[in-house]
Amino acid sequence: MLARIFRLDESGTTVGTEVLAGATTFLTMAYIIFVQPAVLSGAITGSATGMDLGAVTAATCLAAAFASVLMGWYARYPIALAPGMGQNFFFVLSIIPAAAAAGHPEPWKAALGVVFVSGVIFLLITVAGVREHVMEAMSASMKSAVGAGIGLFIAFIGLQNATVVLRDPGTAVRLNPDFMSPDVLLFFVGLGVTGVLVVRRIPGALLLGMGATLAGAMLCRPFLSATGGAADSMLATRFEPASSLVAMPPSPAPTLLAMDISAALSWQLLPLVGLVLFMDVFDTMGTLVGVSQRAGLLKDGKLPRARKAFVADAVGTLAGAALGTSTVTSYIESAAGVEQGGRSGLTAVVAGLFFLLALPFTPVIGMVGSYPPITAPALVLVGALMLRAVAEIEWDDPTEGLPAFLTVVGIPFTYSIADGVALGLIAYPVLKIAAGRGHEAGAVSRGLALLLVAYFLFLRSSVA
C-alpha cells in the first residue's frame, strides 16, 4: 500500500530505503527540538521572552511532524520541515524587541502574529502561482549553484558543530589548533568511519556512522565537555548520556493560539512581516531546489508539483505560529536523507513521525541532538556530495558563471541561504543586460532583482 501511495516504483526506491532515509534526516535535524525552546524562551540568550520552554518544545515537535507529513503525503517530496535556524534568532533578537518598543504588552505574542501573517501571505502568493514564476526565473546554472552553495553551508555547519572551526575576532573563523580536543577527535573518528562506509557503499552508511560516533561518545564521556577549543566554538557542547528513556511530553497550551494578529498588522511591525516572508520564501526555494537537484527530481530544470511543495511549506508556517513557534521551513538537512537513498514523500513522512515519537523520548533524542559532533560527520559528507553540482554550471559563460559563483559563496559566507540566493538573482539580469542579452533574463527575473535591491537598500537596513 505504501509503495502505491508514494509511487515508490516510479521513484526507484523501496519502503526500507525510505524509512532509513527518513530516520537519517530526522537525526540530522533533531537538534532543533532542543535548540528551538532554548532560543525562543530566552534561555540561550539569558533574557526571558515570556514563552514557556516546555510549550515551545511541544510546538516544535508537533509543527515539524505536521509540516513534514504534509510535505511527504501531499507534495511527495523527501524534504522534512521544522522551525528554521536563523529565523528563530531573528524572532527573538529583532521581532520581539521591535514589538516591545512599539508598546505591545506581550511582545512574544505579537511576534507569533508576525509569523502567522507572513504565512498567510506566503500561502496566498503560492496559490496565485507567483512562486512558480520566481522559480522559473532561476536558470539551470543558478539552480545548480544553489545546490552547491547549500552543500558548502551544510559542511560549514558540520565543522562548526564539531568545534573544528572556531570563532576568531580577527578573521571571523579559524581552525581549532587543539586537534587532541576530545570533541575534534570524536568528529574525525566519526568522519573516518562514515567515510569508509560511504565509499564502500554500505546501506545506511550515514545512520550507521552516527551510531558509531554515538558509541564513541559514550566511551569517551569523561573527556567530552565544553572546555578548551569547544568554549570558543560557534556552538559549545557537552555530552550527557540520557538519564532515562522516556518522560512525560510537555503541553503546548501556554503558547497555543496565542498569536496577536492585530499587533502584527500595526505599521511598526508590517515591515517585519515582509522580512519574515522574504526569509521564508528564499530559504524554502533554495532548499527545495538544492535538495531536489541532488535527488534528481528536477525535470527540465523545473520542480514538478512545485505548488504543492510551496503550499505544504506555507501551511507549516501557519501551523507553527498557531502552536507557538517561529517560522517553519524546509530543512537543508533533508539532503542527508536524500544521500541515504530517499526519493519519495515517504522519507518526509517517516521523519515527521519521528518528531511525534520524540515527544516522550526527549531524553534519548537529547543525548544525540544536544551533542552536535555526533551528526557533524554526516553533514560534512553530505556537503561534499552536494558540491558536485558545480560541474553543471556553465562556467564558460560569464553571465551564467558569475551569478552562480556569487550564490555558491554567498550562501555559506553570509550564513544565509536567502541572502546568498538573492545575490545571485540580482547579478543575473544585470550581467545579461550588460552583455547585450537582456532578453535571456525575463521580466520576472528583472523585477525580482529590483525588489531585492530595494530590500537590501531600505527594508534590510531599517531593521538591522
Q: How would you describe the overall organization of this protein?
A:
The chain is mainly α and 464 residues long. It has one domain. Helices cover 64% and strands 3% of the residues. It has helices at 2-5, 8-11, 15-29, 32-41, 53-75, 87-101, 107-127, 130-136, 140-161, 182-199, 205-219, 261-264, 270-295, 306-323, 334-339, 345-358, 362-369, 376-386, 398-413, 417-434, 443-463; strands at 81-83, 165-168, 172-175, 328-330. The strands form two sheets. A two-stranded antiparallel sheet has the order 1-4. The protein has a two-stranded antiparallel sheet with strand order 2-3. Strand 2 and strand 3 form a beta hairpin. The longest helix is centred in the middle third of the chain and has 26 residues, at 270-295. Residues 226-236 have low confidence and may be disordered.
Largest sheet: 2 strands, antiparallel
Total domain count: 1
User: Mean of the pLDDT scores?
Assistant: 86
Strand content: under 5%
Using the alpha-carbon principal axes, give the shape: globular
Gyration radius (Cα, Å) is 21 Å
Distance between the termini: 51 Å
Structural class: mainly alpha
The residue fraction in helices comes out at: 55-70%
